[in-house]
Each structure stands twice: as structure tokens, then as C-alpha cells.
């Protein structure tokens, strides 16, 4: 069928070519004008119709599952039922931490670039270049960086420090006066548990399993030597930071969206008229005062735009969090910065490709997609509105 | 502001007061100062808080710039693990307390099985126990993520458990999921009875021994054919097998195929639409088209990938009657959707930056609107259009989620556009989560990331410099 269409197309083109040769120049011009204007118009209309179709398609197929319950309950029955509440919470937590970290840093960097850095110096130029090109680097590369640097270097180091602290604290506890180890260097499992719970309650209460294991290794009721117990706990300290988690994913996303914030804040700062700035300086304000009282209030819409765009991008990106903290399924909400989380975009990916029964979850998938789309749309639309307001302001000033 | 002292004024007054006997002296002083250019002492008071704040700004800016530079450094640095043989000291892999449950120890390995089933176009079924943070006694599943921490501990015994205790349906059983370079085909799910020794259970795990035998790669190897099928040298990407085969060629060809198909559809559509908006469209239509395409730019790539996977793939299969449901053509269409807004926006910017006098001159000479657009606007904005194409190429080349969901993910080398492909970015996305920390496979994946980074970075640089040089010269320099 495809070949038939192709052959027909070629025949039509050849026929038109020979037909046009016989026409006069003005006639040709007219036909060309009509043809190409309608061609370009068609392509524009095609894109728009397609976007409309896409939205309508996703909405209509997901409509069946959309309900208040869908938004507020966790998934159940092996991801074939229930709602997407943990995913919504995970996404919003990720986005919140990301913007809390990323937006101030991006704003301050933009202020530095515009106000303090020497224009046209090589360093400033290269920074600008780096920021601009970084915006085009694939998001998966940021994920790699998050895995290699944040988890592999920073997190692992933090774990080593934490483990050392924990062990030295335990050693101190074991050597305390009145500890069961004091007299003969041995203690039973229950004694160790009591000792540890008394001294480091919030950590060791969670570790009762380990002490059970320790007693089982030595046999119930048998005394355990101090060195053995120390070694046992040293080996079993669980990594807290050196694993994929919410905080590393958020940091990765913050880095990914840093160029977005920097560029939009810079743009906004540059729109502030020179007169205002100079008036402030002429009144005796210092440079910092001018920035704080004149430049920043003026740039506030720009910062807002940057933040909203960042959030929109952060909510939709999945590639950078694939291996820096997202989880398939967690019935519980993330409790700490080091826990994993669920994400709307990743949830769509999981439902569509890893699910045991794709047909069963079809409407769930479309509904999740619709929620994600609606979220990003609202954010992007707000950003576009604010931005157009800024542009109008610039237009009035000129 | 009141507390700012105008020292300069004070200084001047006092100087004037002492010499205010006659006006001549005053004038002399003024003239003298003018001639000698004696620097005025400005009334700038030193504010400690301000000084600190300004330095904090500097430091934070420096920090963010450093973190940007750190990306450049670390991606390449981690890629070097592909060329080193992994440091394996005699590591005792910790076995997870068999006494506790006394049940069987099941070993499940992901990765190899998934890449196999993916190549046949099937859906991968990975059964994960429903994890819960609460530890329930007896039912304890521990996921061991390999021997990652061996280097720091220097031969010491250390277990790297990720603390994800989960409850499974088969209660009482201890399921150990080993991620990384274990070879699943040779020992499919061995049921190992763990012996409990007195102090601690020591056992060399299989994965360590295999990791020892794995050889690091080099630059020549990844470009050369590394396998023979029917006595023909072929390029194979098979990271999880007895002899891991890392060849970049299928991944590179896959990425190129998908990207080019995407551009083939996106470029004409987007450029024509941009010409329409700039040259022909009435104002009200412009106000509809531009935000609509901005909406498409805001589409998360997962959504586009999802649409391709669910709807477009079925459509393409029914029209072209292909054997693979997910193939590079479907992926290319998805890429086109992702790339259209980029090409459109940049082209539109470049076209509307063409000065009006050019257009009016052309129209005044009797050219039609189309002739003006085609022969005046487009050539004038050619660098911008070129930059748009380059940036679109870069975006499609590095796009992960669409490729992961819509291309089928089978690393095949062929010219057929209706066959499944595996792109570079999708390979990273699919395999990175299951790889051992700083193993060779890990290094190879980072190497792919570094190549992606280098390609997109240089494309962006090219676009930026090209546009800046050519376009600016054209409109301002002449």
C-alpha cells in the first residue's frame, strides 16, 4: 500500500511539472503562490491538529479511570488497579526540593553574571557558553553524573563518615562503666540490645533484626565477645546516603534545570531599564542596595517564570532519575531525604512497558498520562503568561 | 539611606572654610585640583554586611559554575573504568543470614533475560516483590547490589545492602537478587544451600570470579566487529553474556537511524510551518499557532513515547505491515514530535529577525509573497535554519524515553527502517540501573554517555558559533 502511494505521488509531481512548462510566467507565479502558501499553511495546521488530536486522544481514553479516588489512593493488585497518589506526592516532593535548591542558586548565578562578572572577559564568555550548551546536553547524561558523582562519590563518602561515627560511638558505649562487656569482655545478645537501645535509641531500635541474627550466629544465650560483636555491626552498617534516593534525584534535576533558571532570570534582569538603576546609584545607594531594592523586585516575574518552567521540566523529565532514586512501586510515601520515591512519568513508563497485563491497565495508563500532561500544561501556561507580561512591559519601556 | 555620609562634601567644605578669606584662593584651589586631577575621596562607607553578601554571591556563582564544569569532568572520568580491569581483592561476599529463615536461597538475575526478550519484541516481565519499608520478621528479602564498597574497605569484609527489605508472597523464603555481571544463562537460578559456619559465613560468590575474568575494553575493540554469525563478522552489543561483547556500532547506527528519520519528518513540517507563520499568516492565526507549538514543546518525552508505544506503533504496523511492532520508524516519528517545536521556534526566530527592508524591497520589485519567502527570507535566515536543524539533531540523538519506549531496543545492524534498534541513550537508560558500581559494563555505559555528551556539546557549540558569526554579520556587520 505504501508503494502505491509513493508511485502515485511521483506520477502527480511529473505531471504537474510538464503541465506547468506550458503556462506563462505570470500564471506560473500565481499557481506557485497559491500552492506553496497552502502547503505551508497545511503543515502548520497539520501540527496543530495533531497536537489537538493527541490531547483529545489521551483525555478520552483516560477519562474512564479519572476520579478523585484515582488521585488519592496508592496502586494495588500489582499495579493493575488503584490510584497514583504516591506518584503524585513523589513528583511534587522531587520538584519542590529541586526548586528549593536550584532556583536560589540559579538566581544568584544570574545576578553575578549580569551585575558583577566583567562583560566580555573570557571567563564570563566561557561561562555563558557553558550554560547555553548545557541546556542542550541530553538529560540522561545528567543522570549519569548524578549516579557517578552524587551517589558514587558524595554519598559514599558521607556513608563512610557516618559509619565511622556510629562505630566509634558504639565502641564508647561498649567500654562504658556498667556495660556487660566491662567484666569479662563478653555479653549476651539481649544485653547488647538493651545497651544499644539505651544509648542510641532511634537508630538501633530499627536494627533489632541484626541483633537477632547476631544472637543466632553465636547460639541463643551464649556470650558474645566484644570484638566479634563490633566486627559484626561494622560490616552491617547499611548505606544511608550512597544509594539512589530522593535527595540525589532532586540535586540531579536541580543541575539539569539550572541553565533554564539562569537564562530566564538573566533575561529578566536585562529588561530592567538602565535609568532606574542609575537613578538608584545617583541617590547614593551602593551597588548591592541597588540590586536588592531595584533589580531584584524588577526581576521577580522573571524569577517566577524560571521557577515555573523549571518545575514544568522537572515534572516531566524521567531519564535523569531513572537510576538516581525512582522506584517501581512503594505503598508508603517517602519519609526521609534518603528514601526512594515514585514518579508520575516513571509510573507511565513502568505501566506501559513492564506491566504484567498491559491491556488491563490501559485506561490507568492514559489517566496517569493525562494527569502528568495537565500538571505540566498548567505550569507551562502560567510561565508563558507571566513571560508575555514581562515582554509587554519591555515593549512599553522602549 | 540617611546614614550615608557624604565625606567628599565635608572634606571640600573644610578645605574651603580655611581658605575662605578671598575668592581668588578658592578659585585657585579649584583650578589646581582640576589640573592635577586629584582623585576625589568618594563617600562610600564600608558596609561589612554588604561586603559579606557580595562575596556570598560570588562564591555561590562560582559553586554553580564549578558544578557545571564538574559534569564535564565526571562523566569522562567515570568512563575510564571501561579501560581498567576492576580491582578485585579477595572479597568475601556476604551471604544474607541463612540461619534466620533456613529456607532456600533463590538467585534471580535481571538484565540478561530482559535484553533477550526485548529483542524479540516481547514485553519484559520483571517481578518485583512489593517492597515495604516495614520489616516484618521472618520474611526478609535483601537485594545485594554487588561488591561496590570493596575499594574503600581494602579487602575487608563489607556488605553493600541497599536496605530495601521487602515482603514477598512466598513467605519464609529468602530471595536474593543479585544485580550486575552474573551470568544467568550458565547457572539459571541455582538453588544454593547455604552452610552456616560458626563466626560468619564466608563464601566467594560466583559473580566475583566472573568479574575477574572480564577484560577491559579498548577503543579499537568497540569499533571492530566482535562476533561471527554465519562466518560473517558482525557487530554485537551483548553486555550480559559469558563473554561480554561491547560494540558501539549497532548503538550508534540505531541512534543515527532514529534521529535521521525523525529529522526527515520534522524538518520540512517545522520549517514550512515557520515560513507560514512569518510570511503568510494573519496576525490572529499567529497568536494561535505559536502557543500551540509551545504546548508541544512542553510535552514530557515520556508522554510522546507512551503515545508512540500505544497508538502510533499499531497504526504503523497496520499500514506498513511490519514484522516488528516497535521499530526505528515508530521511534523516528516520536523523535519528530519532540523535535518539531525546537526546529519551529528557532527557525521562526531567525526568519522574523530578517530586516523588513529586505522583504519590502523584494515585494516592491514585483515578487510574489512565496517568491519573497523562498528567495529572500529563507536564504537570509539560512544560518538560523541550519542551527535549528543541528539543535534538533542533538535533541533527537540524546533523547532517552522515546527511544526506550518506541524503538524496540534490539541492537540490530541493518538498513531496514522497519527493524528494531537500540539507541545509545536508551542503552544507558535500560542497563544502568542493573549494573555493578564501577565495573567494566558501568564504565562502558559511561563511555556511551561521554560520547553522547561530546556529540551534543559540539553540535551545540557549532550551532551557536555558526549562528552568531554568520547571522550577526549578515544583519549588522554589512
Largest interface: A-B, 116 and 127 residues
For the largest sheet of chain A, list the strands in their spatial order: 1-2
How far the N terminus sits from the C terminus of chain A, by CA atoms, comes to 58 Å
Order of helices and strands of chain B: HHHEHEHEHEEEHHEEHHHHHHHHHH
Tell me roughly what share of residues is in helical segments of chain B.
55-70%
How far the N terminus sits from the C terminus of chain B, by CA atoms, comes to: 49 Å
Strand tally of chain B = 8
Please count the helical segments of chain B: 18
Number of distinct helices of chain A:
16
Fold and architecture overview:
The complex is a heterodimer of chains A (398) and B (478). The mean pLDDT of chain A is 83. In chain A, 74% of the residues lie in helices and 2% in strands. In chain A, helix 4 crosses helix 12 and helix 15 runs antiparallel to helix 16. Chain A is mainly α and 398 residues long. Chain A is extended, with a radius of gyration of 31 Å. Chain A has a two-stranded antiparallel ribbon with strand order 1-2. Chain A has a two-stranded antiparallel sheet with strand order 3-4. Chain B is flat. In chain B, strand 3, helix 6 and strand 4 form a beta-alpha-beta unit. In chain B, helix 11 packs across helix 12 and helix 12 packs antiparallel against helix 15. Helix content of chain B is 56%, strand content 5%. Chain B is built from 18 helices and 8 strands. Chain B has 478 residues and is mainly α. Chains A and B meet through helix 2, helix 4, helix 5, helix 6 and helix 10 of A and helix 3, helix 9, helix 10, helix 11 and helix 14 of B.
